[in-house]
Specification:
Layout (H helix, E strand, L loop, with lengths): L1 E4 L2 H4 L7 H4 L3 E4 L8 H5 L4 E4 L6 H5 L6 E4 L9 H6 L3 E3 L6 H17 L1 H9 L23 E5 L3 H12 L3 E5 L18 E2 L2 H4 L5 E4 L13 H5 L5 E5 L8 H10 L2 E6 L19 E3 L8 H19 L9
Parallel strand pairs: 1-2, 1-3, 3-4, 4-5, 6-7, 6-9, 7-8, 9-10, 10-11, 11-12
Helix pairs in contact: 6-8
Length: 323
């Protein structure tokens, strides 16, 4: 069985081996696959493993030998699921490999907005503390999170972990789930500590908003000029989910006006980031290059899970199938 990995350097730039997959068939790994080379590189392959390389309907229909697409990620919007299903191609994802890493990164982004660690570390290295007449200094305002309200948009695995961590920081947590619960949470559960409501009702109460919902037609651009205007002036926004959940020009405008006191994101609408992205030089904006999932331990878990998915498919009992 021929297996092709199309954009392997994202998950494995060389610090992890591919043995889990190579043991299952004849493996070819490409670091990056430009879209125009997809058909050539995936030709004759029964199995394709992709992270961000797109399989649209046209590509799927031109790969007659393809039987299985494994997505090296949780999101699978790079695959035309309808076309794959029509062709009998099994598509799998890895639903829970980076929950804790993404939660950790979300909190790191939030704390960078509130504690300004990088700003003050740079100031110390520049000699500001050496020259300071007082035993301490701060160049920008710092924010305490205790007793403030955090709105968590999306209540999947990552949203649940983020909510629990924010609660442990002493924040009052409001959840905006995909569907509101029909019954109150059991006493003593995490959920019993939270308020569940709609986005429209939650945003005006928020000191912090953090996004953890999938990107769908319904959620694309949910943070825009209208929803930003409904938030408290000076609130904070964190996005470690998907770039297009926000309208980036509207985020910049809100930062420049002070409606948003800070925006921190691990994702942007177009990745790699475009030179004309309005957030590139926006004030009070922290952006990391989509690294929430990138700890070595997390990526090794991802590759093993992708191999487990393929192994189950080969045994006739596919797991984590999304179609």
């Amino acid at each position: 069985m021929r297996i092709v990995v199309l954009d392997g350097s994202a998950a494995n730039p060389g610090d992890i081996d591919w043995n889990e997959l190579s043991s299952l068939g004849e493996l070819t790994v490409y670091d990056v696959t430009p879209q125009e080379l997809l058909l050539e590189r995936a030709a004759d392959a029964e199995v394709a493993i992709t992270n961000k390389t797109v399989f649209d309907r046209d590509s799927i229909e031109k790969l007659p030998d393809l039987k299985y697409i494994g997505v090296l990620a949780t999101g699978f919007n790079v695959i035309d699921i309808e076309a794959a299903t029509e062709k009998g191609i099994v598509v799998t994802n890895v639903p829970e490999y980076s929950t804790y890493a993404t939660m950790q990164h979300t909190i790191a982004l939030l704390l960078e907005l509130t504690n300004k660690v990088a700003v003050h570390s740079s100031a110390v290295r520049a000699g500001d503390w050496v020259r300071c007449p007082q035993f301490c200094f701060w160049n920008e305002p710092l924010t305490e999170l205790w007793n403030k309200t955090a709105v968590v948009v999306g209540y999947g695995r990552i949203g649940r972990r983020v909510a629990a961590t924010l609660s442990s920081l002493g924040m009052n947590v409001t959840i905006v789930p995909h569907r509101l619960p029909s019954e109150p949470a059991p006493a003593g559960s995490h959920e019993s500590l939270y308020r569940f409501t709609t986005l429209e009702e939650a945003l005006p109460t928020a000191d912090v908003v953090t996004l953890h919902c999938p990107l769908t037609a319904e959620t694309k651009g949910i943070i825009n000029s209208r929803t930003l205007a409904s938030m408290k002036k000076g609130s904070l926004l964190v996005n470690a989910a998907r770039g297009p959940l926000v309208v980036e020009q509207d985020i910049r405008d809100a930062l420049e006006s002070g409606q948003l006191a800070g925006y921190a994101a691990d994702v942007v609408c177009c990745e790699p980031m475009a030179a004309d992205n309005p957030l590139l030089d926006a004030p009070n904006c922290v952006i990391t290059p989509h690294t929430a999932w990138a700890p070595r331990e997390t990526r090794a878990r991802l590759i093993k899970a992708a191999a487990d998915n393929l192994r189950a498919y080969m045994a006739g009992q596919p797991i984590n199938r999304v179609n």
